[in-house]
């Protein structure tokens, strides 16, 4: 037993797993059966994790913080309607514990990507704000909005099959750099509520993720490439600038197909501004 709300038990296959639930271990002794109806979440450690790591983490964290973390994750599931990596129960709980300790000591950490996170991951940032509200209500601790952005990054990681936090940060930076290139070339201010802008951001996020994971490009369509190059010369020129940036900073070259898709998205999102 780790605390009243978290215990370690065995699966049907005799594997150790973590079981969570409000008061699930209250007045229980080692070896006693648990009440199934009290189980809210179970998970088996993923590769690279050990039950000892989980045990050490949850033993040193106050039950109230674990409860806040579990509730935030449940809220994230309800809002995002997507599967989250089990790692989030460890990474987010550990982060919240450390962030709360820092705040109590008067140490505030600035997140340099707060502005980008608010733009690119609006739902996740909203979950971060909900977390701050919960911490204030339950613990009386007021945290700055940069912490909402940091919480959002952990949620984004969990959506991306538990990828490294550094990868998510790098993805966010590259997307922002590409948007800056487009904005400067066309001298435009994006309508961040438009469908074309949202679709453009989504495309960039998936493209950058593929790039960082070194996913091989699909066969190219040279005819479509030539057509787009002729029809949208300014957007194509912007794509070339993006390619130069990626080559210079990440030693990565856009595939022919990616140049086509990127040019079309740039044309749509910039034409929309001109129309307005």
UniProtKB/TrEMBL annotation:
InterPro entries: BglG_antiterminators (IPR050661), CAT_RNA-bd_dom (IPR004341), CAT_RNA-bd_dom_sf (IPR036650), PRD (IPR011608), PRD_sf (IPR036634). Pfam families: CAT_RBD, PRD. One of its GO terms (biological process) is regulation of DNA-templated transcription. Residues 60-165, 166-276 form the PRD domain. Keywords: Repeat. One of its GO terms (molecular function) is RNA binding. SMART domains: CAT_RBD (SM01061). It comes from the Bacteria. This is Transcriptional antiterminator, BglG family. It comes from Carnobacterium iners.
